[in-house]
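Why do we bother with holo predictions? Because pocket geometry can differ from the apo form. Keep that in mind while you read this record for pyridoxal-5'-phosphate.
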Amino acid sequence: MTNFRSDFPIFSTHPDLVYLDSAATSQKPQSVIDAVTDYLTTTNSNIHRGTYSIAEQSEDLYQQSKARFAQFIGWSSEAEVIYHYNATACFNLLAQSLVKSGILTPGDSMILGVPEHHANIVPRQMIAEQYNLTIRRLPIDENYTLDRSVLLSLIDDTTKVISLSAFSNVTGDMPDLSRVRQIVGDDIFFVIDGSQILGKYPINVTTLGADVLIGTAHKMFSLTGLGMLRMQKKRITSLTPARWGGWAIAEVTRDNYELQSDIHGREAGTPNVVGAVSLLAAIDYIDSIGWVEVISQHDQELTQYALERLQALPLCAIIGSDLSSFEKSVAPWQGGGPACGRGFLRGWVISFTLDTITKNALAQHCADHQIAIRCGGHCTFPFWHDIWIDGWCRISFHAYTTPKDIDILITTLRNL
Ligand SMILES: Cc1ncc(COP(=O)(O)O)c(C=O)c1O
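The structure, written out:
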């Protein structure tokens, strides 16, 4: 199994670290760290306003980053990519704009998957309260997969928006979003939370017909503080700016202002240029190791291995589909098309409980052995309430995770 551990200097600093918390944030490859250091050493300057050389270089890098990201998600135009603080900020921006643009009006309904992250849920709950909207929840089936068979029954004339995660941060489920698009038709505004899938599995917004894709750079080898929102140009003008101020305006008079109509009107103030540089370098890194498919392949092999080993532990329950999903892996990858090869139903996030120990004690025991895992409800409290489990432990991988990491975890769990 290929792994890229040596590309990540954190493992030289902490050779015994067993990092199984990549769903929280990914580690950073040396090339991204170098690109950031190089930028700060040679080019650091603000963008948009300078005519001197390093300001122009910074501007160029910022735009290159967006163009590369657009290409990365199967889109051609950087003019439809907005950078914000993180995925959560993007979801907040979007929620308000759906109302302002008239896509959602009082009495309308939105569909969310049961295992959605709070970032996707809470901003919608807030607009629901403010504007008399309803949230309908797409349930999961016995395999913890979104139950598409009931999707049609949730839709009526009031349904205007559906928003689903391409990859659950709890179950590792990757619902077949192309099928969802086919079922709901073209008239419903389709939002995809790509926070956990970007950089691990191919995703193509064009073939998926997604109206919006949201992601967060720190989970794909880049710095924290950068969220990405790709939205069709015709919708961008309806976005309520999340920040008001410099650069966002076309004109300001003593008493009034006029916003820029394009994405600049949605990125007031100094953007996260260093974050953008890091994302550009991260995509270059993914390119250098053979593109996302190589990471997906690594992930599938490791997930299968980890499930085999965890399922062999006495009294261990997996919260998500188990090994049997590997035999059933026939779903097309998220809009990647045939070129991406065979699809998979679940990936590299595994949540579990052990009947012999509480989740907190288990996570602490792991921490005592330099194993980084996470316990709790993982920002999916409605899901937690639905399945009646008082939290769980979660392990998650990335390109640098090795079978040895899994072996150390299992030995530690066996010695409890
Ligand atoms: C599925 C999913 N969506 C959204 C987010 C929010 O990302 P951020 O905290 O970077 O805004 C997360 C973070 O864990 C996530 O797992």
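Confidence is low (pLDDT under 50) at residues 337-342.
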